Amino acid sequence: QVHLVESGGGLVQAGGSLRLSCAASGRLFSSYGMGWFRQAPGKEREFVASISRPSGTTTYYTDSVKGRFTISRDNAKDTLYLQMNSLKPEDSAVYYCAASRKVVPDGRPSSYDAWGQGIQVTVSS
Question: Residue 80 in contact with residue 47, Cβ under 8 Å?
Answer without folding.
Answer: no
